[in-house]
Amino acid sequence: MFGVRSGTLEWILAVVACAACGIFALVGGAQSSPGLRKAGVTVTTAVPTASTAPVAAFATKEPAPTEAAASAKPAADLSHIGAITLRHTTTVRPAPDARAHAVTQVGSGITLPITQAKGGWVKVLSPCEITGWVRATDGTLITAGGETSSLQQAVFVIDPGHGGTESGAVGPDGVQEQDVNLQISRRLAADLAGSRVYFTRTGRYNVGLRFRALLASTLHATAFFSMHENSGPTIPSRRPGTQAWRQVKSAPSASLASLVWKNIYSSLARYRHVPWVSTAKIGPLARPNTKGTDYYAVLRESTAPSVIVESLFINNKFEERMLQKSDIQDVIASGTANAAKTFVTSGQAAKARPYHVKMDKSGGLPSNCTDPI
Ligand SMILES: [Zn+2]
Predict the structure, then answer these.
(1) Choosing a second label site near 131 at 20 to 30 A (CA), which of 96, 138, 175, 306?
(2) Neighbours of ion ligand 1 (CB under 5 A)
(3) CB 215 within 8 A of CB 144
(4) From ligand 1's centre to the CA of 169, what distance in Å?
């Protein structure tokens, strides 16, 4: 039900070597269809990530294909496919046709949400939120995750806030929030090794808010974390001003935000003699807009249990310095990872249901946005 619809998916699934890791993947259903078309497609079901790799090596839980299985070329039910990780710089076209002109290009290692599939092509959204088609063979197709109590099956989408010309908050010493967010996100991915982890942003480039939320939605993420640091008027405090923003009408998001906040806040509060700053609002929080839905676009537009993490105030000179230190980054990352693991292993993620929201207009993109290549 997420991403692609089974009615549009009529492919023969060939066995294709995973170029990134040399592992073969075979996923396919048994049904046949008169509309089957030829397409070489690699599908992965498990994607542990390395510490700093954008979206790292691909593995598969599926058994290695036998020659008989390969020659049979079973038809694939690709309704469970949520995204594609490109394996080379790829041209995005306005139609599923190699003769169609290019609307943009997107680089290797970037994971794009898939909203439709047709004849060996998949419809994607680029980070600059340009819609178009790429061949399924241009990357590795990623199966969606979902509600699970298994860390191995869990899909976590990590969203390093801001990017590119949109730096996020800038500290007094010039530290940009986008960089801190990405560093912490990479540590978080390392802490979640063993689960399947995907990034909305892997470098210093612009990424639309809708793109971020859509990737979590089409991947049917078990949990979605948008990693940020705070900025704004503060007062001196005896404790850190950590915030975790939840989806206003989602009980699983509320549970997740509570877990995230408790883990990060309690770990940071162990640091003594720190001149913390804070606002009146700390804790797990919700911010509705005038319509009663979520004020924050990534929360409003993600169907997955989602949380925005605002650990410290980067506009405060002392906390800006702290945020550059590896132990503080590790505390924030491991606090988030521990919350994610508890959310799954306690059975709360298994009980979650998709958050039904209406897609709004996007935001956070400059008019001259350039996709990463
Ligand atoms: Zn931010």
Answers:
(1) 306
(2) 161, 168, 228
(3) no
(4) 6
